Amino acid sequence: MNITHEVGRLTRDPELRHNANNTAFCNFSVAVDRPMTKDKVDYPQVFCVGKTAENCAKYLSKGSQVAVIGSFQTGHYDNSDGKRIYTSKIFASRVEFLSKSKEVNTETNVDVDKKKGWWRPPILNHFKQ
Predict the structure, then answer these.
(1) Per-residue confidence at 77, pLDDT binned at 50, 70, 90?
(2) Phi/psi of residue 92, nearest 5 degrees
(3) 14-72 pLDDT, tens digit each
(4) Which DSSP helix (H) or strand (E) runs through 58?
(5) Pick from 26-35, 40-49, 80-89, 96-105: least confident
(6) Structural domain boundaries of the chain?
(7) What is the pLDDT of residues 117-128, one digit of tens each?
(8) Which residue, among 129, 112, 25, has the nearest Cα to 121 in the 3D structure?
């Protein structure tokens, strides 16, 4: 079973991109303390897709604390010098925002409590005419 749970702070603002089909993709890295050690930190890259990607780009910024749940995947590519570069990423299936939001969006009716640092997505009423 390939499941990872990481809690940390963003080291940079999320980068949002869209492909030709207008699907959102988001990348960011998270500083995660190593357990049982002092002054050792890992910086895993996180990749998410769709609404998760859009919400991460909209509500997160450098320093935001998040909990990421996803699968750990590795890969490689050859750089311009012909040297093989190995990569590792967390493909997030869920990202929970643990710190204050960077934006309050009253147009979409998103609740943000700045004192407590939580947000709640809008409730969609499908029966409203």
Answers:
(1) very high
(2) -75, 130
(3) 999 999 999 999 999 999 998 888 889 999 999 999 999 999 999 999 999 999 999 99
(4) helix 51-59
(5) 96-105
(6) 4-103
(7) 444 444 444 444
(8) 112
Name the DSSP letter for residue 59. H
Q: What radius of gyration do the chain's Cα atoms show?
A: 17
The first and second tokens of residue 9, run together, are 């702070």
Q: What does the alpha-carbon distance between residue 89 and residue 46 come to, in Å, rounded to a whole number? A: 6
Type of residue numbered 101: S
Per-residue burial over 37-55, b if 16 or more Cβ lie within 10 Å, else e, is: eeeeeeebebebeeebbbb
Q: Provide the CATH number for the domain formed by 4-103 in this structure.
A: 2.40.50.140
Whole-number Cα distances in Å, 75 to 30, 34, 65, 81: 19, 23, 27, 18
Q: Report the C-alpha gap between 119 and 52 in whole angstroms.
A: 14
pTM for the full predicted model: 0.71
